[in-house]
Every structure is written in structure tokens, then in C-alpha cells.
């Protein structure tokens, strides 16, 4: 499996991945994503800012197994959270997704490890992220990776749990 930075020629495959993941979550009773978010404009901005990374087979542009976004963007709602690490350079993870056909094969672990390593190389002191309060599998996943729940924010779809993890120096 390869992980590399996304390019615009991958946008159709990224949108297919997102649709597959959204439908799978809805089937699981997790109404987190829809046609409003995340959308093509969001992914194109991720590509433009070189913050979207893809996991896949050798011909990754045709079939993407998963993706993750790593940047510094913190939604205004994050200001209400009592973060533990405030004096450091902070990275934020967004839109981690793995195609339902490839879930439970370690792809999310690889993507998270990749993002954490990139963040460490770029001298970030901690990583923040949020996940839908009803997305129990994601909550368990992040806790197992050492992320600590630090508070809640509210977005269009409801309550989201915020996590934070200090990176080793």
C-alpha cells in the first residue's frame, strides 16, 4: 500500500470514496456526512493546500482505499474547547476515511501513523481532531491510538467529541 499526496486528477476517485464511506456510515446508523459535507469544493481545497493524503494500490489515482487530511485549520468552534496543549504548534486531522471494502485491514492505522509522522517532521507539538459523538468505532479507534477526549463542539450534524494527542519530540 502506498500513501501519497492527492492531486486534482484523483478528485473523482476521492468523491467515490467519500460517497461509499458516507453510505456505509448511514447504514451503521451514523448520520455524520452527506451531500453537503464533505463536498468537492472541500476536497479541492485540501488538494490545493497539499494537505490531503491518499492510501491505495500501485495505481492509486484509479482506486483509493482511504484518505486523511492534515493541516492547521481549526474551526471557530474549537475556541470553546479546553485544550491541554496551547503553547505549541498544532496540527489538525480531518476527513479520515477508509473504503468499506478495505476496512479492518489496518489502513486507518497506516494513515494515522503517516499523518502523525508528517506532523512530527514538521515540528508540530500536538494533533487535534474531532469525530461525531455517535461514531463509536471512530471514538474507540482514536482512544486506542492515545488520543484524549478533551471536550465537545457542535456542528451542523450535532455534537462532536474533540481529541488531542501530544507528539513525541
Automatic annotation (TrEMBL):
Q: Which domain of life is it from?
A: Bacteria
Tell me, what's a Pfam family for it?
Answer: Acetyltransf_1
Instruction: List the Gene Ontology MF annotations in alphabetical order.
Output: acyltransferase activity, transferring groups other than amino-acyl groups
The protein's matches in InterPro entries, at most eight in alphabetical order, are given as: Acyl_CoA_acyltransferase (IPR016181), GNAT_dom (IPR000182), N-term/lysine_N-AcTrnsfr (IPR051556)
- N-acetyltransferase domain residues: 1-168
Q: Which terms are listed as keywords in the entry? A: Acyltransferase, Transferase
| PANTHER family linked | N-ALPHA-ACETYLTRANSFERASE (PTHR42919), N-ALPHA-ACETYLTRANSFERASE 50 (PTHR42919:SF8)
Q: What is this protein called?
A: Acetyltransferase
Q: Which organism is it from?
A: Desulfitobacterium metallireducens DSM 15288
Amino acid at each position: 500500500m502506498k500513501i501519497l499526496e492527492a492531486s486534482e486528477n484523483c478528485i473523482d476517485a476521492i468523491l467515490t470514496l467519500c460517497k461509499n464511506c458516507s453510505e456505509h456510515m448511514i447504514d451503521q446508523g451514523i448520520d455524520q456526512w452527506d451531500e453537503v459535507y464533505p463536498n468537492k469544493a472541500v476536497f479541492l481545497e485540501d488538494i490545493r493546500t497539499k494537505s490531503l493524503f491518499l492510501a491505495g494500490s500501485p495505481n492509486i489515482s484509479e482506486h483509493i482505499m482511504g484518505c486523511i487530511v492534515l493541516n492547521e485549520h481549526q474551526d471557530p468552534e474549537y475556541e470553546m474547547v479546553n485544550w491541554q496543549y496551547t503553547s505549541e504548534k498544532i496540527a489538525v486531522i480531518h476527513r479520515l476515511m477508509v473504503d468499506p471494502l478495505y476496512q479492518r485491514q489496518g489502513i486507518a492505522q497506516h494513515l494515522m501513523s503517516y499523518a502523525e509522522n508528517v506532523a512530527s517532521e514538521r515540528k508540530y507539538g500536538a494533533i487535534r481532531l474531532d469525530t461525531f459523538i455517535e461514531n463509536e468505532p471512530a471514538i474507540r479507534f482514536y482512544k486506542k491510538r492515545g488520543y484524549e477526549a478533551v471536550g465537545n463542539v457542535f456542528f451542523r450534524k450535532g455534537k462532536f467529541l474533540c481529541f488531542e494527542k501530544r507528539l513525541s519530540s
